[in-house]
Amino acid sequence: MTNYENTRVWLSSNERVVATLRNTSALAELQGKYRPEQLAVLPLDVTNTAQIDETFKFIETTFHRLDVVVNNAGYGLSGEIEGTPDAEARKQIEVLFWGPVNITKKRMFRDVNPAGLGGRVLNVSSTGGYAANMMLAFYSAGKFALEGFTEAFNREMPPEWNIKAIVIQPGGFPTNWRGSGMTVLPLHPAYDENSPSHQLRRMTKNYSPIGDVNKPAKAIIRVADTEDFRTLTCQSLNPHAPPKRNMPLTRRAARLALDQLCIYLQPILYELLAL
Fold first, then answer.
1. Which of 65, 181, 202, 252 is most buried, by CB atoms within 10 Å?
2. Which residue of the set 139, 140, 164, 236 is catalytic?
3. Per the similarity annotation, which family is this (predicted)?
4. Which residues contact 168 (CB under 8 A, 6 or more apart)?
5. pTM over 0.90
6. What average pLDDT does range 243-254 have in this prediction?
7. Which of 264, 252, 1, 266 has its CA nearest to residue 127?
8. One-letter-per-residue 3-state SS of 41-81
9. DSSP strand E in the chain: where?
10. Which of 86, 101, 182, 172 is CA-nearest to residue 136?
């Protein structure tokens, strides 16, 4: 999902939106189409706690309430584990994990909204937060951590507060995630052309995901309006994945199972490519 498409879909549903991003000029077109009381665009780096405080202060003084928070900031860091500098790995975790954590810890749902109104925190994870893959170790680590945090957060919330956090696990969509949203590190010299990571680099060099970028934003709106969430427990087709992971009871369950099957078959595919 992009900030532009996500914001546009929310606005088309007649919601009031505070859109935050590092480069506010990306939403200049939308700003010209909507009144300030319906769309506010603010600069925000999720690793900057002072900016987070300023954003929530603006929301409180301008709109006096907050119903839904969507934590969607992120980027990809691709490279072999031993070829990833500590600074790059820590930066990845700061954005994917600590940014959403510091935003979620703000107390507007409980302390500013009317009692019992509550709110929803939608933490955008990834299929990489369900099953890790090579070259994206620290990306998956950040998403796994975010999902664990979300689960613990929900267990801590008293029911009468009506505050719930939800994990969203989108698949691949044609956004700039694989372009400007991806940092690709050089191949580590220890990995030759027959190594799994080198094969993956070759396989995905010209990969272009398909899908409608509007659909995940529309799905998020439906989720935000859902009072309860049914889950099922299943054993992944990937024998190395942790058992009994919860997943939404939707068509995405079948899609995720197929994703796991693809991961399971990857070593076989590498062998075929080497023939």
1. 252
2. 139
3. Belongs to the short-chain dehydrogenases/reductases (SDR) family.
4. 122, 123, 124, 125, 216, 219, 220, 223
5. no
6. 49
7. 252
8. EEECCCCCHHHHHHHHHHHHHHHCCCCEEEECCCCEEECCH
9. 17-21, 39-43, 68-71, 76-78, 119-124, 163-168, 182-184, 231-234, 245-248
10. 182
CA distance 38 to 176: 26
Please report, for the chain, the start and end positions of each structural domain, with discontinuous segments joined by +. 4-257
**R_g (Cα) of the chain, nearest Å:** 20
Q: Check if 143 is active-site.
A: yes
Q: Tell me the CB-side half-sphere exposure of residue 229, using CA atoms within 13 A.
A: 16
- From the list 78, 140, 143, 164, the catalytic residue is 143
Which of the following is catalytic: 78, 106, 125, 140?
125
Confidence of residue 264 (pLDDT cuts 50, 70, 90): very low
Question: Domain 4-257: which CATH class?
Answer: alpha beta
Tens-digit pLDDT profile for residues 138-184: 999 999 999 999 999 999 999 999 999 999 887 666 566 555 667 88
* DSSP at 129: G
**What contacts 137, CB < 8 A, 6 or more positions away?**
81, 84
Over 50: is that where the pLDDT of 92 sits? yes
- Nearest partner of 168 among 208, 121, 134, 135, judged by Cα: 121
For residue 54, what pLDDT is reported?
Answer: 97
